[in-house]
Amino acid sequence: MGRSLLSKVWDLHAVRKLPTGQTQLFVGLHLVHEVTSPQAFAMLKENGWTVAFPSRTVATVDHIIPTLSLARPFADAEAEEMLVSLQRNCRDFGVPLYDLGAPEQGIVHVVGPELGFTQPGMTIACGDSHTSTHGAFGALAFGIGTSQVRDVLASQCLAMDPMKLRRIDVTGRLASGVYAKDVILAIIRTLGVKGGVGYAYEYGGEAVDAMSMDERMTLCNMSIEGGARAGYVNPDATTFEYLKGRPAAPKGEAWDRAVAWWFSMASDADAAYDDRVTLDGAALEPHVTWGINPAQSTGVTGRVPRAPDATPEARAQVAEALEYMGFTGGEAIAGTKIDVAFIGSCTNGRLSDLREAARVVKGRKVAKGVKALAVPGSNAVRAAAEKEGLDAVFRDAGFEWRGAGCSMCLAMNPDRLEGRQVCASSSNRNFKGRQGSPTGRTLLMSPAMVAAAAVAGEVTDVRPLLGGGR
Amino acid sequence: MSLPAIRRVSGTARPLTGDDIDTDRIIPARFLVSVTFDGLGAHAFEDDRRGAKTRGETHAWDDARFFGAALLLVNRNFGCGSSREHAPQALLRGGIRAVVGESYSEIFFGNSVAIGLPCVTLPHEAMAALQALVAGDPATMLALDLGTKTLAAGEATFPVAMPENARQAFLSGNWDGTSMLLDRYDEVEALAKRLHYVTGF
Ligand code: SF4
């Protein structure tokens, strides 16, 4: 029986069995940002510890960054304090920081891959749930809490319980207008938000093989929304092509050795899995969430469910979601009026996301009364998009073209929903109040679908708006 | 590396009655944006305390008779709500060294172990008796012993419970996750040297 990438990477990084029964796992790359690190650094100081491997640690600032003006000090005194303390901690502990305004700065899950830090066969940790993004490269990437951030800073290790492995095959080719976002929304809808508890997800199959790295990152990013601790795609030629020439990628002869090693870390053809699931990718249509967790979605031609039709266990949850979202149940999801359109986040704030959205808005106008934001995931994405003229496409259509950051994905910076606004959003969480207003409503979808909703003023099928193939 | 074991916690106690006291009540969310845990103790139960004040009452956290207490006496499902570590931190920074209650949310319990705050349980009747005893005589000295799984309060002794792995973690000092991970650091360094991507391929 062959071995999976999960078991190869796990064994390679296992330091020892701990007295608690857990495994002490070495962390190959620790990504740090301003929100979950200050208390961890403070605990290091309290205990007189240093950062064990500053060379395996990289910091940037993303969550609290205002996307309109970077003028200092920030209007929000607490945001200002978080940035100042990150700068001070990185200086004091010798951690490299891609600081505010640096050309490399951006959302931590966009920046890590972009700079070539994220590589196959690594263990990666970051104090943010969406660290699973990095699994797109065939790395084992975990989101961790603040006390674990402290653990990793001080020891470069985590105490981990073993995981089971579920292989998810997405067969066939995705249709035009159907993206990785739709695949992961469909997976979470099928398996549920708790379906992945205790598992890592390995994604594969024809549709995944054909995906770009940007798309694989979207797919892996939301593994955590399905309850999985991590999600990954085996490294292949697409992975190596992406990494080649990136600043932190190996060069020269080391590159060739690296590729050979990375390739050897991929799951063997006869690897063992604890569970297998297959999804027909060719049959998927664009997905839209109608509820208050990412599993509550439907195809764009579908309808919002009615509470009485739900299973007895799900009925109360469906009723709660319908009430919060203002649906009666039974209505078509297409035609749902929106107030805000948000393109961005670590799920869908990369260049290809902006390109797909721009294809939709080009030559069209944002509907009256809709506030539309296009927010690049990093300064590098922003620069690349501007080089292609995407900023002009968005602006001409009536979008606001913003600076890089987490923006309206969560309520830690000035970009927020107001009141009961409905937002078509390319982000990853539609929890109550997630986008900053306690009563704000989020409809998750792909960036192209957000663009379509922005110009239509309501949820609409993007497929007729996309001329020609992909 | 020496690992600090936690076996006994003694001192006076502060009774805090009520079921389902959630993490937002223990430390309101607006204090979470702060960059350190320092000062969290001062804001523990802030909204509940304000509410009590406007009703002309005194919240247990403000009650001068219980100042300096090392143990907190609570009821059912204490610490439900969010997963943040700030709630046990606020108690710890507020001088609490152990919590005695009827039950806890699982995440609150785990976070408490991770920061060295033992949480033990005893049945409803025993807790009612204990809270009444301490309310009647705030100077009552309590002694929690994780080794013998007992809580002495004045003349009385109550058996208490704690999941065995957590109890062993406290007794052996392995509750301190970071120290445990640093314990055999040479093995960590040796492993790093074997990783191709660390050595540069
Ligand atoms: S974009 Fe959203 S999910 Fe991603 S790191 Fe930022 S806040 Fe977290």
Defining traits:
heterodimer, A: alpha/beta, 5-stranded parallel β-sheet, 19 strands, 33% helix, B: 201 residues, alpha/beta, 8 strands, 38% helix, 14% strand, binds iron/sulfur cluster
Helices and strands in order:
The complex is a heterodimer of chains A (470) and B (201).
Chain A (H helix, E strand, L loop, with lengths): L4 H9 E4 L5 E4 L2 E4 L5 H10 L9 E4 L16 H17 L3 E2 L9 H7 L8 E4 L13 E4 L2 H10 L1 E4 L3 E8 L8 H12 L7 E6 L1 H4 L3 H9 L8 E4 L3 H7 L8 H14 L9 E6 L6 E3 L7 E3 L12 H14 L14 E4 L1 H4 L2 H11 L9 E4 L4 H9 L2 H8 L2 E2 L20 E4 L15 E4 L2 H10 L14
Parallel strand pairs in A: 3-4, 3-6, 4-5, 6-7, 9-10, 9-12, 10-11, 15-16, 15-18, 16-17, 18-19
Antiparallel strand pairs in A: 1-2, 2-8, 13-14
Chain B lengths: L7 E4 L1 E3 L7 H4 L13 H4 L2 H9 L16 E3 L12 H8 L4 E4 L4 H9 L4 E3 L2 H13 L5 E4 L4 E4 L2 E4 L4 H9 L4 H6 L2 H10 L1 H4 L2
Parallel strand pairs in B: 2-3, 3-4, 4-5
Antiparallel strand pairs in B: 1-6, 6-7, 7-8
Bound molecules: iron/sulfur cluster.
The site of iron/sulfur cluster has 13 residues of chain A, from helix 12.
